[in-house]
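Materials and Methods. Structural model of Integrase. The 64-residue sequence of Integrase from Desulfosporosinus metallidurans was retrieved and submitted for structure prediction as follows.
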Amino acid sequence: MKKAGLHHIRIHDLRHGMGSILLDNGIPLTAVSGTLGQVPATTAGVYDHSLRKGKSIANLLSAN
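The predicted structure was written out as tokens:
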């Protein structure tokens, strides 16, 4: 990662980012929770920022 000029990122960060992006793009909560191996209530609690704000993390990342 250092050689490629990338910041340190954990696998957990990638997983969380993927969950946020899927929800931001309108993928149903049940589909995202299944992909992540969680029950929908857990996914809703962890990703409530994506569900409530309606701001796409993908758009925020592409703006930089």
